[in-house]
Amino acid sequence: MAPRKDTIFQRFLAPAFELLIDGEQLKRLSQSIDWNQAVTKFGDSENFVYPEYYRSQNFHGIEGGYLTRDAAVTYDAITQYVLPPGETLVRQGLIDAIRCQPTTILDLGCGTGSTTIMLKKAFPRSWIVGLDLSPYMLAVAEHKAKQAGLDILWLQGKAEATRFATEQFDLVTASLLFHETPPTVTRAILKECFRLLKPGGEVAILDGNQKSLRQVPWLTEIFEEPYIKDYAGDSVDAGMGAAGFAAVLTEELWWLHQVTLGVKPLAARAGFTTREDAIASGDWMAAPGY
Ligand SMILES: C[S@@+](CC[C@H](N)C(=O)[O-])C[C@H]1O[C@@H](n2cnc3c(N)ncnc32)[C@H](O)[C@@H]1O
């Protein structure tokens, strides 16, 4: 599918970014990665089936979407300009929302690993995995982590169907992923987060502020984002509740962004489905919404 030429991004922002971006620096980044080796390492090409919704779309107007070297090399250079008031501040909003002290962390749709790396720095003793569909994005993530001397495991996989064991993680995160997934996939990802978390574990989702996107619809037209209108019309908050999470709370970040945090009830281990059942059994700590 050819990139659309009618988006505000293609008509105005792409030419502006070309002026802002340091082409030489991107060339150096591209040359410092052995792409064939990275794609062989991360891309389980024989057996891996990319979801149709992902393979068939040109995210951000790049033909081939995230399954290209170009997308991976330019991602950070562009992202720094599209997260006002500042990329690091916005990503820090997700870290600040976390209430647990995780020792096992999974970052879904980790892309080039910017949030994953911040998580590792915030919780240095944690075992952390960054998972993404794109071997190209993972190649850049691995390069950045190596440069920072950080030990992070990078894996190719689907956020909606990871191959991890049940109750393996204390914390599961996703930043800037949900505006790129169709509603059915978003719901499947939240269910997968619930399965992967230990009881008492937390899920933290950072993305665009759904309320603001609904109030100012042209914000959903700026980039070539095939599923952003679905995302704007949906509610991460409600999705987490439906997946079984308790204590769900969405906080607005500088009007444009939001962080939603949910906790897997301790009752999930005890097998109680309602707060009343847990309380009736005398197991107060296991009550959903404890
Ligand atoms: C906008 S980028 C966000 C990357 C990163 N989390 C960040 O905060 O910059 C979305 C990423 O999600 C990945 N992605 C999209 N759908 C996915 C899925 N179902 N499973 C895993 N990764 C997915 C894409 O390959 C891309 O790297």
TrEMBL record:
GO molecular function, one term: methyltransferase activity
Keywords for this protein: Methyltransferase, Transferase
Record-linked Pfam families: Methyltransf_25
Record keyword rRNA-binding present: no
PANTHER family: METHYLTRANSFERASE, METHYLTRANSFERASE DOMAIN-CONTAINING PROTEIN
Any single biological process term in GO: methylation
InterPro entries: Methyltransf_25, Methyltransf_Superfamily, SAM-dependent_MTases_sf
Keyword Methyltransferase: yes
Gene3D superfamilies, per database record: Vaccinia Virus protein VP39
Record-annotated Methyltransferase domain positions: 105-201
Name of the protein described by the UniProt record: Class I SAM-dependent methyltransferase
Superkingdom to which the source organism belongs: Bacteria
Organism: Planktothricoides sp. SpSt-374
Signal peptide: none
